[in-house]
Specification:
By secondary structure, this protein is of the alpha/beta class. About 40% of the residues lie in helices and about 10% in strands. The strands form three sheets. The chain has a seven-stranded mixed sheet, with helices on both faces. The structure holds pyridoxal-5'-phosphate (PLP). The site of pyridoxal-5'-phosphate has 13 residues, from helix 5 and helix 6.
Length: about 425
């Protein structure tokens, strides 16, 4: 099969049901091709206006009285994320960073099982997830058991079934691998954990806004995720956390703050946790960031997760077809699963000079992909924003770079 031509890509853009969403974002500089939405989602125009209003009108004119509209903003944001992750409106809230939320929920989970001494995760999990679990295990004298994954980073249910036993308190994985884009079988993993009586904690950072997620339908217990990747919430936007309704009263938050109190403004001298998801709030929420995040969340919800998923499957397939024809002959590897139902919205290539390639793409071609040591080059599809044609152009630039037509040695600088 021969891969698509540029005219084919233009044709796909003309027939793209999400094409009109491109204009809902602030236009990137002329000539820039942005394939890094898995790291920082592009800026929705509505976010600029939301921040302006929040600052100028609510903060500037309303001053402290604006807290009346702000105080339940984390809950309202949670309600808007809930349909994207298959959760009930009272099962999600927005707070802190993904790392901190992961700690809060993991600590609450292991504390609920004082007689179980093991946490199961995988060697390819995102570094912060590994570190948070390591720190928790150290403090509480628990063991971490690592499920092995192959080069494709896929969590295999049989590997999970071998690792989880009656000593397991918590099973924690990322739904989509930050490195390879491998998409785990959430339902199979939840079943295994449930049968052994362990709780599950999913990190949805690379999945939310990219693939449909059904936390309730698959019986997930706990989840966290960030809003600044495919939800386009902005740099440092607060993360979300999910606790299955039936567990909310049973698990104790590890950090007791006034926003988690059952009656915050009673200024009660003793802590008493809120009955529901609010008990996982700690301190004052970041209102300006949350206003920006809501603009991104609403845009993704409006585009619709089914249309987003259909498009990112098609575009990642286009990338893999072009890879086969253009890049594989030049020693570039592919670690992303080829089955579209087993990958998220980015594609991971490997190249021995991956850092130099990525720098060169940015400097000489204005193509933004990113690099993860030692050899991974990642390129993502932010479906409401990304066009088929820019992906085709970016892949053509990558081809030229690895085919030796360009001088790699000249490119310098950090690639975040
Ligand atoms: C991006 C990402 C994070 C980010 O954590 P922060 O605390 O927001 O910095 C965590 N986990 C995964 C899997 C991620 O992809």
């Amino acid at each position: 099969m021969t891969a698509a031509t540029r005219a084919d890509a233009e044709d796909l853009d003309r027939n793209d049901v999400l094409a009109s969403f491109r204009e809902r974002f602030v236009a990137p500089p002329e000539g820039l091709r942005y394939l890094d939405g898995h790291s920082l989602g592009p800026l929705p125009a509505a976010a600029v206006e939301a921040v302006r209003q929040t600052v100028a009108l609510q903060w500037g004119a309303g001053l402290v009285e604006s807290w009346e509209q702000w105080v339940d903003l984390p809950q309202r944001a949670g309600m808007r994320i809930a349909p994207l992750i298959g959760a009930g409106p009272d099962e999600v809230t927005l707070a802190d960073s993904t790392s901190v939320n992961l700690y809060k929920l993991a600590a609450a989970a292991v504390e609920a099982f004082p007689n179980r001494r093991t946490i199961v995760t995988d060697a390819g999990n995102f570094p912060t997830d590994r570190y948070v679990l390591q720190g928790l295990a150290r403090r509480r004298d628990l063991q971490i058991r690592l499920v092995e994954t192959g080069v494709d980073g896929l969590i295999r249910p049989d590997g999970v079934a071998e690792a989880v036993d009656e000593d397991t308190a918590l099973v924690s994985f990322s739904l989509v691998s930050y490195r390879t884009s491998a998409l785990a079988d959430m339902s199979a993993v939840n079943d295994i954990a449930r049968r052994r009586g362990a709780l599950t904690l999913w990190d949805l950072s690379h999945a939310v806004g990219a693939v449909p997620i059904d936390l309730a339908g698959t019986g997930a217990d706990l989840a966290v995720g960030c809003t600044y990747k495919y939800l386009c919430g902005g740099p440092g936007a607060p993360a979300f956390l999910f606790v299955r309704r039936a567990l909310q009263g049973a698990l104790q938050p590890p950090v007791w703050g006034w926003f988690g109190h059952r009656d915050q403004f009673s200024f009660d001298p003793e802590f008493a946790p809120a009955p529901g998801i609010e008990r996982y709030l700690v301190g004052t929420p970041p209102i300006v960031s949350t206003a920006a995040a809501l603009a991104g969340i609403d845009l993704v919800a409006e585009a619709g997760i089914e249309a987003i998923r259909a498009k990112n499957r098609r575009v990642t397939s286009l990338m893999i077809d072009l890879y086969d024809e253009w890049l594989a002959p030049h020693g570039v590897g592919l670690t992303t699963p080829r089955a579209p139902e087993r990958r998220g919205a980015h594609v991971a290539f490997t190249h021995p000079d991956g850092l130099a390639v990525t720098r060169h793409l940015r400097r000489d071609h204005r193509v933004i992909m990113d690099f993860r040591a030692p050899t991974t080059i990642r390129a993502a599809v932010a479906a409401p924003f990304t066009t088929y044609t820019e992906v085709w152009d970016a892949m053509a630039a990558l081809r030229r770079t690895v085919a030796g037509g360009d001088d790699l040695a000249a490119a310098e600088g950090r690639v975040t």
